[in-house]
Design brief:
Blueprint (H helix, E strand, L loop, with lengths): L1 H5 L5 H36 L3 H29 L1 H20 L4 H29 L5 H26 L6 H7 L2 H11 L6 H6 L3 H11 L2 H14 L17 H16 L2 H6 L1 H6 L5 H25 L5 H24 L4 H16 L2 H11 L6 H30 L3 H20 L8 H8 L3
Length: about 450
């Protein structure tokens, strides 16, 4: 079998093409993630938001994401990966229009919650799909494409928000309504995607799986991959959530949940979602606040590209170790600067440094690991459990920040995030193994009962 694997060739353009199409789900994630930052200054005025309602409005996306992940996990294991991606795109398009035409706060939150359902489905299914169609040697890079589309969604949305922000108090409606465009592109692209070959094998459709694998790589690749999948796959149409708590898979599931929660509670999404609040606290005007969101998007994109280049070379573990420890240090500096009312220019330097650290480590690597470490037969539901945990943590983070900032000062929460990042560094150092270059089936054996 080793001799066969050494002679394998791949259709790289086809693999990249289907990976990019699937990763457009990440763009929707990035859009809804970023649009709130540019729109909040307007929404505060229109809806007369208190700190509590500001946090709940921002976090309502995460509540929808939780529902979306739960739906997607069952859907992905019963009907396949592709139908869920189609549904996610449709939900997102309708909710974008719903937010744009909301007449009151209740309607807006309901539509943002609905958008979260689509984002939650895409956030689980896109990296899962990419991992299952990608050969081991390029899986890390390809799953990181999902993170690239997220950051491109953030960058382009922030740039558009900055350019149109001065055109009137109701411009926030256009900001949200523009989400229809990427939704339609995503929906159109998904229609041309093949189903995941690993899911096809799991439900007994081996001939179809072999045909798709034949488009991805040579005959040797088809033979070796089918052999590996059949060794680990269990032919079942639907897997109950109770399966993720079985003793044999529990270590991998707990690892995935912990990494997902840490990616959010590390605190960086406070910087993304509350850029205007943070810079307003040191006297920056609205134009400066919105320009900072653009700078964040640019840095985020550049360092995500760096991560894509290194994740299959340097590896997953070194990147997240450097990122978690680096963030801990930078947060302490940011807290001291905010407390001392430092100038917006110096504050921007360290905010962008934090973004760069996150973009090369926890942002892409967490998604890569979640897509890798679960066994084939429970990957759908296990991924949904981990990503539900991620969205719960995201809701806690963005809901509590405005309240904590009101009582502790804007600088106060960053001390807490620094402690969390250091604790995460220790967890990764002692509990996370390297996964680069191994097939999903090899990793299944590596993490079983570990």
């Amino acid at each position: 079998m080793q001799a066969i694997k050494s002679s394998i060739k791949f259709n790289n353009s086809y693999i990249l093409g289907i990976s990019f199409i699937s990763a457009l789900g990440g763009y929707l994630f990035g859009f809804d993630f970023a649009v709130i930052s540019g729109a909040l200054p307007f929404l505060r005025t229109v809806f007369h938001l208190s700190s509590w309602w500001e946090g709940f409005l921002t976090g309502s996306l995460a509540l929808g994401c939780i529902v979306g992940c739960l739906i997607a996990g069952k859907l992905a294991d019963k009907y396949g990966r592709k139908p869920g991606l189609v549904i996610a795109a449709g939900i997102f398009a309708l909710s974008s229009l719903g937010m744009a035409f909301s007449h009151n706060l209740t309607e807006f939150i309901a539509m943002r919650f609905t958008a979260g359902i689509g984002v939650g489905m895409a956030s689980m299914l896109s990296p899962l799909y990419i991992a299952e169609v990608s050969p081991a040697s390029m899986r890390g890079r390809n799953v990181a494409i999902n993170q690239l589309t997220i950051v491109l969604g953030i960058l382009i949305t922030n740039l558009i928000n900055y350019l149109i922000a001065g055109t009137g108090p109701d411009i926030w409606r256009l900001m949200f309504g523009l989400g229809v465009i990427p939704s339609a592109l995503f929906l159109f692209g998904v229609l041309f995607l093949p189903e995941s070959p690993r899911w096809l094998v799991k439900v007994g459709r081996e001939n179809e799986a072999a045909k798709i694998l034949g488009k991805i790589g040579s005959a040797d690749f088809v033979e070796s991959t089918m052999h590996d999948i059949n060794k680990s796959a269990h032919h079942a149409g639907s897997v109950p959530y109770s399966a993720v708590f079985a003793k044999a898979v529990r270590p991998a599931v707990l690892l995935g949940i912990t990494l997902a929660v840490f990616q959010q509670l590390c605190g960086i999404n406070v910087v993304f979602n509350y850029t205007s609040t943070i810079f307003k606290s040191v006297g920056a005007n609205l134009n400066e606040q919105l320009f900072e969101t653009v700078a964040i998007g640019i840095v985020n994109t550049i360092f995500t590209l760096l991560a894509m280049w290194q994740v299959d070379k340097l590896g997953r573990r070194p990147l997240i170790l450097i990122g978690s420890l680096g963030l801990s240090i930078v947060y302490i500096i940011l807290a001291l600067m905010l407390k001392g009312n430092a100038g917006a220019g110096w504050l921007s330097v360290f905010v962008l440094l934090a973004i760069g650290l996150y973009a090369t480590s926890l942002a892409p690597v967490t998604w890569v690991l979640i897509s890798e470490i679960f066994p084939n037969n429970i990957r759908g539901v296990a991924s949904s459990v981990a990503i539900v945990s991620l969205w719960i943590a995201y809701f806690i983070l963005v809901f509590t920040f405005p309240v904590l900032a009101e009582y502790l000062g804007t600088y106060g929460p960053f001390y807490l995030y620094a402690v969390i990042c250091f604790a995460g560094f220790l967890f990764i150092k002692y509990k996370v193994k390297e996964t680069k270059g191994q097939t999903l089936e090899q990793l299944e054996q590596s993490f079983a009962g570990h």
